[in-house]
Structures are given as structure tokens and as C-alpha cells.
Write a structure and sequence with these properties.
Length: about 55
């Protein structure tokens, strides 16, 4: 399954990723949903959904 290319997170998105216990420098934002972010790891392409403020 092909994924969209991840984009660098904004400052607000970095704060949300950090509050989810992830290192914002290792994750890219793949999709922005209402109240959620879909993030992709830079190295091993793992997907996670986190809650955004």
C-alpha cells in the first residue's frame, strides 16, 4: 500500500507529537484529520494516529 509523502511538522504539530511521547524529529506528518494527526516514522515507515489539540 503506497503512502503519501510525509511533511515536516509545524511547531504546533511538534508539540502534539511530543506530548504523545514521540520524538518530533523522527516523525513526519502524513495526514491532518479533525482532532487527529497521522504520523509516519522517518526511518522505518511506521504509522501512528495521535490526538492533536
Amino acid at each position: 500500500m503506497a503512502l503519501k509523502n510525509g511533511k515536516r511538522p509545524t511547531l504546533r504539530q511538534k508539540i502534539a507529537i511530543g506530548s504523545a511521547g514521540k520524538d518530533p524529529n523522527d516523525w513526519l506528518v502524513s495526514k491532518v484529520l479533525v482532532g487527529k494527526l497521522v504520523i509516519v516514522h522517518k526511518n522505518d515507515q511506521r504509522n501512528k494516529q495521535i490526538i492533536s489539540a
